[in-house]
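Q: Predict the assembly, please.
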Amino acid sequence: MASNGAREPLLPQSPDPAPPKTNGQVSRRRYLRCRSAPLANVDPPEKTDIGSIHRFDSILGKLHPSFRTVALYLIGYLGIGAVIFYLVRHQITGKKTEGVLDAIYFTIVTMTTVGYGDLVPNSDLTKLLACAFVFTGMALVGLILSKAADYLVEKQEALIIKALHGNHEVGPTKILQEAEVNRKWYKFFVVFVLLVALIIMGTIFLVAVEKLDVIDAFYCVCCTITTLGYGDKSFSSEGGRVFAVFWILTGTICLAQLFLCIAEMNTEKRRKEITEMVLKRRITIADLEAADIDHDGTVGVAEFIIYKLKEMGKISQEDIALIMQQFEELDVDQSGTLSPSDLTLAQAPWPS
Amino acid sequence: MASNGAREPLLPQSPDPAPPKTNGQVSRRRYLRCRSAPLANVDPPEKTDIGSIHRFDSILGKLHPSFRTVALYLIGYLGIGAVIFYLVRHQITGKKTEGVLDAIYFTIVTMTTVGYGDLVPNSDLTKLLACAFVFTGMALVGLILSKAADYLVEKQEALIIKALHGNHEVGPTKILQEAEVNRKWYKFFVVFVLLVALIIMGTIFLVAVEKLDVIDAFYCVCCTITTLGYGDKSFSSEGGRVFAVFWILTGTICLAQLFLCIAEMNTEKRRKEITEMVLKRRITIADLEAADIDHDGTVGVAEFIIYKLKEMGKISQEDIALIMQQFEELDVDQSGTLSPSDLTLAQAPWPS
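A: Predicted assembly structure:
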């Protein structure tokens, strides 16, 4: 990814330790950009796994790998919950329907912290079990939330890259900015539409199957997706609980995701304001002095970028210092620039 | 902050447009660092307000300004909730104690989504009111969570700056790294200790005042702080509800904060792994080519830093492109470096 065959090498391939002199006459007004620094692969083992997904034909197999991991956790959690609460079903009181279904329903109502109270533990053992399940359930819901966000973002990433590739000459900055804004709005839009659909679906279902009137049905929907769960209205029929098992989980996660989206959009807006503020600020001579990292008396474009990024709060002194340390280790001839010969001298030969 | 009187100016103060030549003989092995780029002030209007806090003598006045804003929202929310639910108290059924207290208690139980169900709305009006209050309550709890984190972090910031200042010669990188790790652990520790204290306090209170046995009390505590709220055990006495009003809010927020802490520490750990991976990777000639932002055939320390930061995913092409644009606007003489004369030519005179 980092090497592009079509481009001519800009650095001399000779092992001359002295850095090549700048002639100062290179055309400066062409569009400058830091080319093709590859983004670090966050989850390499998972990514290399993508190819193997197609071996499965199940729905689970077709899911995104990080989603699949979460789905497996969820199935494991619900499976263990169902078995345990089925075994102790006589120590749980309330409105009961079918044994296994009630156990799964109770697990879902507990893990999402809806806690209607239509089924309640009534022994010390089941009470402590419920405590254990609610804490682990919260952690699992948190995991689902973070992974769902990753998934949506990654799906959009492809579109952005395509947009960038197709319009390379028209100004990548603008496209990137728009893609970034669009991505956030797209995510918000998807989650919002899904949530409205789930609210309507839940209301209709409660009216049709649980025989509630419309206000009561809507009230029960709101009590559920917010995890409020007073419990005066809940799913008490067998059909209702089958629906509830799927609907409660998607509904609560969808609403939480919407709140996360709004929070992200707020953060993004604030960050954009800071960026604009930093970019609009007058540059003084004191700024030039402070930006001169290599103390050579001039501020190049890269030094300027680092100074501004630091001012924006996007990078910290720690980030810079660690990389500087590596630079100094690599810069064997202490010329202040890296040359191919520096690399040869500083880095041990490839292990054979 | 950006100008330091004790330091001699590194840039020539003459309006000579040609960049000063590097002599290549400057001592390179001294510790390089990008000096004193000021962090952008995130909330300037709030910050300038700090001085005015001391005019108030109340507890509220002594709080951190962003905390004060949230406290005002919270008081407003609880006040409105108390008034409204007091007015419609005859349309709420369940275990009742004193009118105003019940209204506040109901508001708290609703906003935190605990939703015991010991008090439930039983008219269309109160049901829709509860829906409105749970949504706004969730948003408010989210705000409290984010501000509480800010507060804890800012409190630590002072310690870090002090550590840096006191040990300037011993290696700022190490101190910054340790401070970063310590800050996360400190926050986790504070929240954890507070949560354990709240759990013990709640359990003892429920045993002493609500006359529950120890397991039931602990179970009710867990049901509450996780916002599960089955409602089979809740605060039914007048004294219990006074305690509950304060305890439920702090307990639920404390647990959510602990989960956030753990998530942050995980993110931090992953980020550190990526940083290490990027720093350990062999540098190839192709990397040098890609890192050469200004196309002058050499890779200086600043270019190297930007390349590595990009590889770590800490900065994006968008960030770089925007600042580059500003650089090109400022670099009037197109020398590829900024000089004081560039600044004079590019920036309009100060408005008088």
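Strands of chain B lie at 92-94, 119-121, 299-300, 337-338. Residues 124-166 of chain B form the longest helix (43 residues).
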